[in-house]
Amino acid sequence: MPPPAASSRYPSPSQPSGKSEVTDLKSQLRQLAGSRAPGVDDSKRDLFKKVISYMTIGIDVSSVFGEMVMCSATSDIVLKKMCYLYVGNYAKGNPDLSLLTINFLQRDCKDEDPMIRGLALRSLCSLRVPNLVEYLLGPLGSGLKDNNSYVRTIAVTGVLKLYHISASTCIDAEFPATLKSLMLHDSDAQVVANCLAALQEIWSLEASHSEEACREKESLLSKPLIYYFLNRIKEFNEWAQCLILELAVKYVPSDSNDIFDIMNLLEDRLQHANGAVVLATVKVFLQLTLSMTDVHQQVYERIKSPLLTLVSSGSPEQSYAILSHLHLLVVRAPFIFASDYKHFYCQYNEPSYVKKLKLEMLTAIANESNTYEIVTELCEYAANVDIEIARESIRAVGKIALQQYDVNAIVDRLLQFLEMEKDYVTAETLVLVKDLLRKHPQWSHDCISVVGGISSKNIQEPKAKAALIWMLGEYAQDMSDAPYILENLIENWEEEHSAEVRLHLLTAAMKCFFKRAPETQKALGIALAAGIADFHQDVHDRALFYYRVLQYDVHVAESVVSPPQQAVSAFADTQSSEIKDRIFDEFNSLSVIYQKPSYMFTDKEHRGPFEFSEELGSTSITPEVSSDIVPAQQFEANDKDLLLSTDEKDDNKGLSSNNCSAYTAPYESSNISSQMQELAISGPAASATTTQSSFDFDDLLGLGLSAAPAPTPSPPLLKLNPRASLDPRAFQQKWRQLPISLTQEYSVNPQGIAALTVPQSLIKHMQSHSIHCIASGGQSPNFKFFFFAQKEAEPSDYLTECIINSSSAKAQIKVKADDQSTSQAFATVFETALSKFGMP
To answer: DSSP letter at 2?
Structure first.
């Protein structure tokens, strides 16, 4: 069956069927503009709906502006609303067309229907065209004096819009004074609330350059005005009540009687069904009684019940918001909420974000009287199908164990987790057992007996593996298999991708060596050699430090690495007390939800007139103080200098002349013992046999060096022509003809990898070393470059293909040369230049 003809199809109301659709709408609207026939309003509605629909999906229908205005001459309020919506959308972008709307909007502002008067006034003020400001003054003045409260409410908001269009016009017309009079004498609560909101904003903005506005702003916090609002607070809606309560927070009472009077006036607001009103009232109570310790504690008791009721009666989102504020109060006064711990038990149908917050609260309120019940409940959550909740519950048990003195039952529960044979449960438990042993070393026997039966092959998470390795090193004397487990882990060094685990392996091997030297000697040697050759700077530095301090004196090394055990009295809090106080000052705001002060997540221009100064500069880095921050490259260089002697620093300055990398293995240097003496604070003088003893020490650790190799003189560096040139076609021809002289792989330093985000930087760097780039390509993490260079004295070319992988920090090069006997010398120059890439 053929498709129907175009004329028989019905176009979609939200999509024009052709280019002439808007033109057809325009002609139809013009026909209906002056018509008074029955049913014309229904036809207009259909056309208006099409216009609004096209406008919504982004089709330009501004060409029907005049026709829409002409069709607005009707008493149908639905048509009026659609017309006002259309006019408000196109007026700001088409100021000239806006003039067409002034007459009919001003006429509608005098309509008999207060709804039409209000809508017309709102649309008139929403045009936001500076050239039409003069047309707003009359309708606004009339609206503020209108008999209908809805029109007055719209007019008050219109004054604020006028202020943002032209502040001087608004002030000169004395609208703020009119708003103040309305605020004090109007019988409608919504009008009063709008006046308060508008005056607060106007006077706050004007206060920066007007003393009168400053005085008016302060007058809002006067005692008569505060009591005027509080006595009428029941008349206002929830939004207005929150506005008044926020104003009351800033009021400074004259004496204690004043405080009690305000609290008595607001007592019933704590029973309000709206959570925002309750939280605003709680903030008033807390701020008023800060200087009255006894009363402040009673306030906590009073506000506890309303907040707990809101948690259980609202939506999950409301419950989370209320719980966030309760958590802040619980941290400040945990003993008050200790008896209500069952309110914070997790329900099966609660979302995970609510459960996590409840677990934090259970941790905070745990004490001697309720610990057993709370830990029992938390242990049930460890088997939860939600893995993240199970992890959080185990962490909560561990935190409770760390803050209690009697941990007998808790330790037993933790060790039972290790028998659940779930990887994530075992991982979290191992981390907690490590922290527990740091604070309560007396439990080492019970814990180690269970931990010793766990296979390291079954632990994949870095933090858990690091915790197990720490226990293997710290309690090597109590774990018979500790040296052999460590040896197995060290033999798989290359397969371990976590730097944290490799760092713990180094330290654990050292500690185990001091306790069980014969069994750990070989493993320690392998660990030090692998650590020194490790690409990660922290791992390299720690291995280098351990190596040197061992060479200096084994007893000194033991006192540094494995001192006598001391129990940790307390673990550092993640938030400072200043941060917590700042969040408490911003009660009933997003700061409590985010658990950070507002200046940490808002821009300066949006912090408002009451912003705090950033005295806690250490908690965040702003552009103003960023110049004082030591750059990463400079920091790494300084950190490197801490591990080098003066002679080595001087050698590194001439790095290009001796062909050595920035981190040469220390046992290849013949003066390593003298470096160790410079690192030590105090110690015996070096003997004449120090050099030989250092190599004996290397052999003892199994590093495979039985005698000191004679230093070989560095070959003279190849001199390259800085003005070399080569045609791309000649390069291609030579690349096809010449054989590969050598293939090598180099490591690229972290600074170079960071600088490689712009490949052009490497090209410029190599050109400064007389190695020129003829082609480049690729994208992260693989970059490919073709370089060429020429001897300074002879017409001999070196062609190089260099592929750099930024994720592995490795560079693979292929060199082709006219004179293949000098290929190694050129590769040395290339490696030296590449090793300096990104260095300051």
So the answer is: P
Place of tokens 């430090």: 545
**Secondary element (H or E) of residue 805:** strand 797-805
Residue 2 has pLDDT above 90, yes or no: no
Higher pLDDT, 507 or 408: 507
Minimal CA–CA distance to 562: which of 483, 454, 474?
A: 474
- Token pair belonging to 369: 């009287």
Tell me how far apart the 2 most distant CA atoms of the chain are, in Å. 119
Rounded distance between C-alpha atoms, residue 590 and residue 574, angstroms:
19
Query: Mean per-residue pLDDT for 298-323?
Result: 91
Provide the mean pLDDT of the chain.
80
- Report pLDDT for 573: 65
pLDDT band at 458; cut points 50, 70, 90: confident
Q: What is the pLDDT of residues 160-212, one digit of tens each?
A: 999 999 999 999 999 999 999 999 999 999 999 999 999 999 999 998 888 89
For residue 743, which of 809, 817, 808 has the smallest C-alpha distance?
A: 817
Confidence band (pLDDT; 50, 70, 90) for 251? Answer: very high
Number of Cα atoms under 13 Å in the Cβ half of residue 751: 15
Three-state SS at 714: coil
Each residue's pLDDT tens digit, 24-82: 888 888 888 777 777 787 888 888 888 888 888 888 888 888 788 888 777 788 888 88
187 Cβ contact partners less than 8 Å away, ≥ 6 residues apart = 149
Listed residue (776, 768, 748, 745) closest to 838, CA to CA: 748
Q: Is the pLDDT of residue 528 over 70?
A: yes
| Three-class DSSP category at 338 | helix
Helices (H) and strands (E) in the chain, counts: 42, 5
Asked if 84 contacts 123 with a C-beta cutoff of 8 angstroms, the reply is yes
Say if CB 156 and CB 140 are below 8 A apart. no
From the CB of residue 92, how many other CB atoms can be counted at a distance below 10 Å? 12
**More confident of the two residues 129 and 109:** 109
Q: What is the pLDDT of residues 685-705, one digit of tens each?
A: 333 344 455 555 565 566 554
Helices 134-144 and 175-185: crossing angle in degrees, nearest 10, is 20
Inter-helix orientation angle 482-491/462-474, to 10°? 140
**CA 766 centroid distance within chain:** 37
Q: How far apart are CA 545 and CA 552, in angstroms?
A: 11
* Per-residue confidence band for 539, with pLDDT thresholds at 50, 70 and 90: very high
Fold topology of 17-250 = Leucine-rich Repeat Variant (1.25.10)
**Are residues 309 and 274 in contact, defined by beta-carbon separation less than 8 angstroms?**
no
CA angle 698, 699, 703 (to 5 degrees): 65
**What is the location of CATH 1.25.10.10 in the chain?**
17-250
Distances (CA, A) of 523 to 209, 505, 513, 550: 74, 10, 9, 15
**Per-residue tokens: 630:** 């030591």
Considering the chain, what percentage of its residues have pLDDT values greater than 90? 33
Q: What are phi and psi of 693, to 5 degrees?
A: -65, -30
799: three-class secondary structure by DSSP:
strand
Q: Is 656 exposed, middle or buried (0-12, 13-18, 19+ CB in 10 A)?
A: middle
Pick from 312-316, 341-345, 411-415: least confident: 411-415
Distance (Å) of CA 619 to CA 327, 594, 606, 658, 805: 22, 15, 20, 44, 35
CB 830 within 8 A of CB 767: no
Task: Give residue 514's Cα distance to chain centre.
Answer: 43
What residue spans in the chain does CATH classification 3.30.310.10 cover? 719-835
Q: In sequence order, what are the residues at sequence separation of 6 or more whose Cβ sits closer than 8 angstroms to the Cβ of residue 231? A: 265
Q: Could you tell me the CATH superfamily of domain 719-835?
A: TATA-Binding Protein (3.30.310.10)
HSE-CB of 593 using CA atoms within 13 angstroms: 12
Local structure of 811: helix, strand or coil = strand
